[in-house]
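A common beginner's mistake is to predict each chain separately and then try to dock the pieces by hand. The better habit, illustrated here, is to supply every component at once so that their relative placement is modeled jointly.
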Amino acid sequence: NAGVTQTPKFRILKIGQSMTLQCTQDMNHNYMYWYRQDPGMGLKLIYYSVGAGITDKGEVPNGYNVSRSTTEDFPLRLELAAPSQTSVYFCASSETGTGGRSYNSPLHFGNGTRLTVT
Amino acid sequence: LAKTTQPVSMDSYEGQEVNITCSHNNIATNDYITWYQQFPSQGPRFIIQGYKTKVTNEVASLFIPADRKSSTLSLPRVSLSDTAVYYCLVGPLPNDYKLSFGAGTTVTVRA
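With all components supplied together, the output reads:
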């Protein structure tokens, strides 16, 4: 059981290049999320998904795109990379609160992708 | 979503108890309080969650007063490995789970 796996761990992009950050989870979680964390700051939600085929914007979606074709995978696409997108990107997943549960399902995070745009 | 306020940083020594208080004055009836821990170069890790009174697990305790406008994470007998950033999140059930993390509290444990 690997949990949430993110690739690559590190990447340097030139301004204007594009790339896809990969995220996969093996816990059969319906909910998946992408966050970014700038140095010394908290995590900001970019996009999230409540199930395959369903995605929605978070707090800072501009410059990013996502897709969710399977339960396991939730890739994040950066088009036309800019220096402002230099950050650490975290993917997370969680269960839904169905089946009689009344707790707030905790997030399971990957170890992040450190992206530098120069 | 309820706004939270927590101290920016706290210092402690090995073996001491660390208490981090989070204020959430506009917490809603169906909101839960969740704490995460983040080590450098890692993603946050779930520590504990509660709704009211006291919750305890093998890592920490969470104290929530009756009015639920604040909560306190208690780390007993900390060690150097407890040096991390601790985040307090307040939010409803997963159907509305769009939370962003604040800056958290940086806890530094010294020998």
